[in-house]
Amino acid sequence: MATETRFAPARVTRMSAGRRGRIGLTVLGTVLAAVAFFPVLWMITSAFKTRDTVTDGKLIPDEFTVQNFVYVFTEVPFVRYLLNSFFISAVITVVALLLHSMAAYALARLRFPGRETLFMTIFSTLLITAPVVLIPLFLVVRELGMLDSYAGLIIPAIFNAFGIFLLRQFYLGLPRELEEAAIVDGCGHWRVYWSIVLPLSRPILSALAIFFFLANWNSFLWPLVSTTNPDLTVVQVGIASFQSQYGSNWNYVLAAAAVAAAPMLVLFFSFQKQITESIKTSGLK
Predict the structure, then answer these.
(1) Digit-coded pLDDT (tens) for 156-185
(2) Cα separation of 192 and 190, whole Å?
């Protein structure tokens, strides 16, 4: 009885410390989320301001107007920009997921000479930033005659070492017994990949699809360099040209940016669980 009385305050102290820690983390997370979301909120509310009040420093407009959005959709072919970005991002996402999953499965499960060297070579490309390879990539695409074409916008963006790395880490965590049972039943590597591994990869593929689509939807530098055809303009380049065309008319620029950000915000809030799970999975090995 005396022992229980002696240890009871210690347990109460640990519980109080744990509760204070959770409250502190909750407050910290709330503050960080507010700081991260504030620019988006500012962009959305400023898109409804008039030209005279867009730079007044107020978060809530004194006078709401939708004329900025009307102006965006009537003065430039903004719908064409959106469709170009959607088409290019969707094609890159689908093709990249298919090729990356096959490459990652081979690097995780198949045994062949130079496998580790090949993986390290792919992994090392994560250390190279996009501006470093911009000019060599432009020269290669020009020699192949793909400038000012959808192929020139899509093919160079398909390879992504991060996707291969993330999928390989996921495949290493899959139980080998499933694949060995399928091989005993007469399945080849392709059948194992297509019928067993790929269905099990839906969570990580869903998360990667979001990452790839977001990255290519927001792509600016390569589309700006590789195309001069107005019919191939993507939404980010379209917003930039809109800004230069109208100078300091930030109400139009922010309205265009809000329209471009809306699909991505919907995607993120719809699949935030898959994104969180993929990040947890990629950090295990």
Answers:
(1) 999 888 889 989 988 888 888 888 888 888
(2) 5
Residue recorded with tokens 């020139």: 152
Q: Is 190 within 8 Å of 196 (Cβ atoms)?
A: no
pTM, to two decimals: 0.80
Q: What is the pLDDT of residue 285?
A: 44
Neighbours of 275 (CB within 10 A): 17
Percent of the chain with pLDDT over 90: 23
